[in-house]
Amino acid sequence: MNWAYHLILPWCTFMILYAALYVRLIRANVMETVSEDYVRTARAKGASERRVMVQHVLRNSMLPVVTILGMDLGLALGGAIFTEGIFNLPGLGHEVILAYGRADLPLITGIVVFSTIAVIVFNLLIDITYGFLDPRIRPT
C-alpha cells in the first residue's frame, strides 16, 4: 500500500496532461452525435434516455476517442520518461537515460523494441475495440 500511495502524485501528473484533451473530445463528439437523425428516431420510437445515450450516442461518439487514444500511446510512453525523471521513479524511462549515459546500446535497443511491441499490441487492441463499438467494422 505504501508503494501505491507514493505513486498517486505521479499518476495524477501524468493523467492531467491527457484528461483535458479527452474530456473536450468526448464532449464535442457527444454534442455532435446527439443531433443525428438516428438518435432522434430512437427517441421517437420511445427508447429510454439511458438506452439512447448508451446504445446510440456514446457508442458512436467513442470511435474518434479510441482513435486518438491509440495515437497518444507513443506520446504517453515518451511522457512517462519525463514523469519518472521528475519524481525519481525507477522504470524504463529511467533505464533508458542511464543506458544512454553508459552508452549501453543493447539495453537501449531492447527498450525501444519493447516499446514498439507495446504500441503495436495496443493498436491491435484498439482495432478489436472498433469491432465492438461499430458493427459496420466487424468482419463478415
Description:
With 140 residues, the protein is mainly α. The chain has one domain (2-137). The chain is built from six helices and no strands. The protein has helices at residues 2-5, 8-34, 37-44, 49-87, 92-102, 105-133. The longest helix is centred in the middle third of the chain and has 39 residues, at 49-87. The model has no long low-confidence stretch (mean pLDDT 85).
Strand content: under 5%
- Name the poorly predicted regions: none
- Largest beta-sheet characterization: none
Query: How far apart are the first and last residues' alpha carbons, in Å?
Result: 47 Å
How large is the radius of gyration? 20 Å
Order of helices and strands: HHHHHH
Number of helices: 6
Our count of domains comes out at 1
Mean pLDDT: 85
* Fraction of residues in H or I helices: over 70%
